[in-house]
Amino acid sequence: MKKIFVLLLCLLHLASFGFVNGSLVEKEKIGIFELKKGDISLKVTNWGASIMSLVIPDKNGKLGDVVLGYDSVKEYTNDSTYFGATVGRVANRIGGAQFTLNRHHYKLVANEGNNTLHGGSRGFSDVIWKVKRYQREGPSPTVTFTYHSFDGEEGFPGDLLATVSYILTGKNQLVIIMKAKALNKPTPVNLANHAYWNIGNQNSGNILNEVIQIFGSKITIVDNKLIPTGTFASVKGTPYDFLKPQIIGTRINQLAKTKGYDINYVLDGEKGKNIKLAAKVFDKKSGRTLELYTNAPGLQFYTGNYIMDVKGKNGHVYQAHAGLCLESQAFPDSVNHPDFPSTIVTPEKPYKHYMLFKFSAKSH
Ligand SMILES: *[C@@H]1O[C@H](CO)[C@@H](O)[C@H](O)[C@H]1NC(C)=O
Ligand SMILES: *[C@@H]1O[C@H](CO)[C@@H](O)[C@H](O)[C@H]1NC(C)=O
């Protein structure tokens, strides 16, 4: 009896392996994982380690979903807007789809003109992650995904083990921890979460009437292909100044070239403190506030400028500015700018990116 059981287990084990690109790899199923704690609930999928929904109360205690997305995982596999996704190996743009590291020249897959965007044409947002841990309820509901990126994937050097954990904690708080370990070669790493937030509810229209405060007094100036020139500029006197709370839509028309905000802020932080408040969003109608704390040096603020006729949850169609992205991360194209904080991860120096999203709601 025991022998038959072991044999059965072996067969089941074999069945979960398959051939991809000629090599034997473990085939992981795509699934949906839900975390619940008090009033807050989060749905994620291991396709792209993506957030599918986050439901939280408004000022009247009414629950609503504040993340743009789709109803089914199948739709995520055909997404081109990076809804909710974990982007990598290197989020944001790498100019000319190339870099030199330790005298080796690396040519990457270009997927936005001549540049690489969000890790190439099949970045971390377009792969199946393994489920390492799943605890649905309790004091700290958690789901942890891992992805083993191979040497040469999209042109990047070395094997890399990436981990993303979603944790519900405290009262209406979401923690995301992204880690990466280079297994054999140094490589640039920049992982970011690409959720489109609309704290007024995902189907409430656009975010132009929401108020934002961004704790960055400088931005990285970019060329007309959105690649940093290497210089920084003060936000003073520009539409990028959100040091004091401002309505998002007030000055957005001054940014005709990018059709809205799509820029990296240098986060100010406090001297000697690793974790800083990066941004605060407030929506008057729902009374909801979102605060993002992070250890990342930068924050890409993107107002969903290129969303057009995207058929989302429950048939709702998203248009430009339907949501906003708060992508805490390293500065874009850091690997080609020695003056920027380094994104190089080595076997001795692992990567860790911490994000805390604090939600609250009250009548003002
Ligand atoms: C896949 O996405 C494209 C837009 O990017 C859309 O036109 C098409 O209908 C989608 N296909 C499916 C099966 O959802
Ligand atoms: C890519 O680079 C080549 C050579 O510099 C240039 O001719 C071409 O216009 C560029 N393409 C885009 C889409 O920027």
UniProtKB/TrEMBL annotation:
Keyword set includes Isomerase: yes
Biological process GO terms, please? galactose catabolic process via UDP-galactose, Leloir pathway; glucose metabolic process
Q: Any idea of its EC number? A: 5.1.3.3
**Gene3D superfamilies, alphabetized:** 2.70.98.10
| Amino-acid biosynthesis recorded as keyword | no
Active site positions: 194, 327
Q: Which InterPro entries match?
A: Aldose_1-epimerase (IPR015443), Aldose_1/G6P_1-epimerase (IPR008183), Gal_mutarotase_sf_dom (IPR011013), Galactose_mutarotase-like (IPR047215), GH-type_carb-bd (IPR014718)
The UniProt annotation places beta-D-galactose binding at: 92-93, 194-196, 262
Pathway per the UniProt entry: Carbohydrate metabolism; hexose metabolism
What range does the record give for the signal peptide? 1-22
Cross-referenced Pfam families: Aldose_epim (PF01263)
PANTHER family referenced in this protein's UniProt entry, alphabetically = ALDOSE-1-EPIMERASE (PTHR10091), GALACTOSE MUTAROTASE (PTHR10091:SF0)
Q: What is this protein called?
A: Aldose 1-epimerase
The record lists the lineage as: Eukaryota, Viridiplantae, Streptophyta, Embryophyta, Tracheophyta
